[in-house]
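User: Can you help me understand a structure? I only have the sequence.
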Amino acid sequence: MRRVIYRSADSRVSYRTSNSWKWVGLLPLLLLSACATGPQSEAPVEERGAQPSRQTTWPPVGTHSPGVLVRPLPTPGTTGADSDNPAVKHLVYQAERQARSGNYGLSAASLERALEIAPGDAWIWHRLARVRLAEGALKQARMLARKSTALAGSNPRLLAANRKLLKRVTAKTAAKRP
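Assistant: Let's start by predicting it. Here is the structure, written out as tokens:
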């Protein structure tokens, strides 16, 4: 409410209240209520019962539309730094640089981020196992090397690298025991 001061000819002061602001507050409510009272219609109802069977017809294997790039599915354990994902490539490259400079914690963090993107990549698991071995976390290194071996499939190079890593873990574990 707004007070308006009026002075009359004989110098009397009178106060009047202006109710124009009430309408400003009610105007949006009036406009919105007009929208809510539109025509009412019933929602469509789905008829259940016998529906015609929908069979999807797939094109024959080896045929595809022009302009469509068809790539074979990746074989487990064959990616790593050869991954098609540029983020994974960058993270693996960054992790290798960090490990070479002795920043094993940062290297492990980069590899763990790469594993969030590509969890089935056996080479990244192997690299993380190597970093954990360099840190001295032998149990983690053993577990990660075994995970890499499980994901390696029939990749002989990776399987040999994991066997070699597991031998190093076993040798370091034996050296630590009194």
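Now, to help you interpret it: The chain has a mean pLDDT of 76. The longest helix spans residues 156-176. Let me know which part you'd like to focus on.
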